[in-house]
Design goal:
3-stranded mixed β-sheet; alpha+beta; homodimer; Dna Ligase, domain 1; flat; 2 domains; DNA-binding; Arc Repressor Mutant, subunit A
DNA sequence: GTAGCTGCAAACCTTTTGCGCGAAC
DNA sequence: GTTCGCGCAAAAGGTTTGCAGCTAC
C-alpha cells in the first residue's frame, strides 16, 4: 500500500504551483534549497508514481519519432507499448486562429490521441481472463 | 551547400516506407543488414537535417514534462526554447469518437500547438534587425 | 516489526560531438 | 582539390535501478 511521504507532497506542490509544466530537473532545482538531501531519483520515482495514480499528467515521451508524411495529420499512440500510428482526421486551421493570443506566434498544432492498440488490447484481455 | 548522400536517401526511404513512425534506433536497425558500416550518429544527423529542411517531421520532444492540471486542456510549446504553457481551449469529446477505429481503444487526446513564445519572438526580431 | 520510501551511486538509454578519412562536386 | 558527410568512439544529457538505512503505519 502507498504511504504518506513528505517528499512526494513537496514534489506535488512544486508541480502544482509552477506555471511552466516543469521537467523533473526543474522540480529538483526548485526544491533543492529547502530540501538539500533530495535526490533526483526520488523526484523521478514520485513524478511517475503520481502520474500513474492520475494525480499528475505526463506530457511528451522521451524518444524522438519521425514521420515522412508532411501534410498535417493526427496521430494515435498506444499508452502501453508506445507505438504510434496515423489517423485520418482533417486538420482544422480554425484552431490555429483560436489559439493565438498572449504574444505567441502560432505555427501549427499536433494532435495526438492516446489509446490502447489492438495488440495490447488483446493482451490486456487475456491478462484479465488469467485471474 | 548540401550534397547528395547515399546514406541520407536510404534513411529517408526507411522512414517513408515504415508505417510505425520509427525512432532513430529503429531506422538504424532496419538499415543495418544492408549497410553494416552505418553509424547511429549518421542516422541522427540526417534525421535532424531532413526535419529542419522540412523533408521529415519530428514528433515528441525528448524531455518529460509534468502538469498538475488534470482536466484536459491544450498546450502550446515554443519551438525555440521548449517552454510549455497552458491554453484556454475547450476539449472536444467529439474528436475522441471520430478517432475510434481499427481496433484502437481511444482514451483521450493531447492537443499541442507549436509557436514562438513572446520572449523568443522578441529575440528573433532583434536578430533580424542586427543584419 | 514490516513494508514502503529515501539518498546515493552506478547503470542505462538516447542523443550529440570531435576527429580523421572518404565521397561528392 | 576543396568541402561536406561518414564511421567511430567518447561524451553528454536524461532516466532508471539496486541497495542499505530510515520512516510511516
Amino acid at each position: 500500500m502507498q504511504r504518506f511521504s513528505q517528499q512526494r507532497e513537496r514534489i506535488y506542490e512544486a508541480v502544482r504551483t509552477s506555471m511552466e509544466h516543469p521537467t523533473a530537473q526543474m522540480v529538483y532545482d526548485a526544491l533543492r534549497p529547502e530540501m538539500p538531501r533530495l535526490s533526483l531519483g526520488t523526484v523521478y520515482r514520485n513524478l511517475h508514481q503520481m502520474a500513474q495514480e492520475g494525480r499528475l499528467r505526463e506530457l511528451e515521451g522521451s524518444v524522438a519519432r519521425f514521420d515522412a508524411v508532411l501534410p498535417p495529420h493526427a496521430h494515435i499512440r498506444c499508452v502501453r507499448c508506445g507505438q504510434v500510428a496515423d489517423l485520418a482526421l482533417p486538420y482544422d486551421p480554425a484552431l490555429d486562429r483560436e489559439a493565438v493570443g498572449g504574444g505567441w506566434a502560432v505555427t501549427g498544432y499536433e494532435l495526438v490521441f492516446n489509446g490502447v492498440c489492438p495488440t495490447c488490447g488483446a493482451e490486456q484481455l487475456s491478462e484479465n481472463q488469467r485471474v
